[in-house]
Amino acid sequence: MMRFPDLASLARSLAVALLGVACLLPARGQTAAPAVEPLARDMHEEVVRIKVTVSDMYGRLETRAMPITVYRPTGDGPFPLVVFNHGRATVDRRAAQGRYRPEQAARYLVAKGFVVLVPTRIGYWETYGDFDPEQSGPCNARRLEPMMTAASDQVLATVQYASTQPYIDTTRWLVMGISVGGLTSIGTVARHPPGLLGGINFSGGTGGDPVRTPARPCSPAQVARHWGELARHAKAPMLWLYWQNDKYWGEEIPRTWHRAWVDGGGQAEFVSLAPVGEDGHLGLVNDMQAWLPLVDAFLARLGFDRPAIVGRPPASRHAELADASKVPINAQSKATGYAQFLQARLPRAFAVGVRGAWGYASGDYAVGKALGYCQRSGQACQLYAVDNDVVWPAR
Questions:
Q1: Which of 5, 148, 182, 377 is deepest in the core (most CB within 10 A)?
Q2: CB of 79 within 8 A of CB of 115?
Q3: Alpha helices, DSSP H, located in the chain
Q4: More confident: 16 or 304
Q5: Nearest to 337 by CA among 285, 374, 367
Q6: What does each C-alpha distance from 309 to 67, 112, 290, 306, 336 come to in angstroms?
Q7: Other C-beta atoms lying within 10 Å of the C-beta of residue 79
Q8: Domain with CATH 3.40.50.1820 in the chain
């Protein structure tokens, strides 16, 4: 029997630190969160480290070991690649930013048939310290080009590493990211590297401060000018996703950035999504129901049309929802996990594995997240209940 923790409280406590930035996944599941999350065994999650050489805005050149989180399908491949990029916390919180693990997004992409490589760039997590290649200077004198070059250099170094792995096909790859990671994706597309088929920008930008100056980022006109200049070199199509209640950029400023990109010659579909939660900047994590079909359609246009979005099975006659005796897990798991599921708010879902693992989720994309929490064990899992219905096949 495998049990996996409730990461919701952890995600909330780190949200301010991580989401200018990156996003932890707010798992709703089982017990108190441990110090270290279990690896996603179903996606063969591992961490590798490669040497990268980058320069900061002052011309200082350093070679450091950059950690990369790997998620991959089962099999020999070669599989197409996604490089997924995190954002940037404020300086006082960057040391605690941690290894970036966009697990739910990665699980969807792995189900589509991609290897997902997630670099935790130099200046974050274990490489935080005396060298910050993404420093861009004060608000009134920002230097965006060195920052974007350093970030995209690390993406290209990740792709170079991927080219040495026989299970990865780097003639077909995409770049994606959130916040400064979205900016990194834009900067990478602008460099038109070989094999790049497209890019996705989730809430991308720089200079935001949701506490002191919500929806009023630093020097947005400078960002627009720089992105407009970069766009003339871009070839690959992009999808740009922003939420209307984004506390970093607000609703209108991202539109001006998009206009500059398109007017400069770049290809990008802009989607303004309805407000979600207290801060739409967290939409990658908190609004999968909204962005999944948009991303799925974008990937289908690029030729990646394998189904990967988890749907809701029909209700069955296996049991009444409250009858825990019919749930195919052990007594302790029924008394903890299934009991908690029954108390969870709607929408909600509960999944069980073939050897006793279980997971549940409530809220956004509950069916997919519940399966994911169960599948971390490496077991095959199936939905048992969704909302107020048992969906386990009647025997």
A1: 182
A2: yes
A3: 8-18, 103-111, 144-162, 180-190, 220-231, 253-263, 283-286, 288-301, 331-333, 339-343, 366-375
A4: 304
A5: 374
A6: 29, 9, 12, 9, 28
A7: 20
A8: 39-301
58-79 tens-digit pLDDT: 999 999 999 999 999 999 999 9
pLDDT at 98 over 90: no
Separation between Cα atoms, residue 348 and residue 341, nearest integer Å: 7
* Segment 93-111 mean pLDDT: 89
**Nearest-angstrom CA–CA distance, 20 and 248:** 7
Task: Give every CB contact of residue 76 below 8 A, 6+ residues apart in sequence.
Answer: 166, 167
- CATH superfamily of this structure's domain 39-301: Alpha/Beta hydrolase fold, catalytic domain (3.40.50.1820)
Name 242's bridge partners.
Answer: 272
**Poorest-confidence range of 8-12, 102-106, 136-140, 194-198?**
8-12
Stretch (H or E) spanning 242: strand 238-243
Measured from the Cβ of residue 286, the count of other Cβ atoms closer than 10 Å reads 22
- Checking if the pLDDT of 25 tops 70, the result is no
> Which long-range contacts link 355-360 to residues 24+ away (Cβ below 8 Å)?
355/1, 355/2, 355/379, 356/1, 356/2, 356/329, 356/330, 357/1, 357/2, 357/3, 357/4, 357/381, 358/1, 358/2, 358/3, 358/30, 358/329, 358/333, 359/4, 359/29, 359/30, 360/28, 360/29, 360/30
Which residue type occupies 284?
Answer: L
- 395 or 255: which carries more pLDDT confidence? 255
What per-residue confidence (pLDDT) applies to 23? 29
Six-digit token pair at 303?
Answer: 């030729």
Within 8 A by CB and 6+ apart from 35, the residues are none
pLDDT value for 36 = 63
Residue 24 pLDDT > 80: no
Answer whether 250's CB lies under 8 Å from 216's CB: yes
Residue 247 in tokens: 């506390």
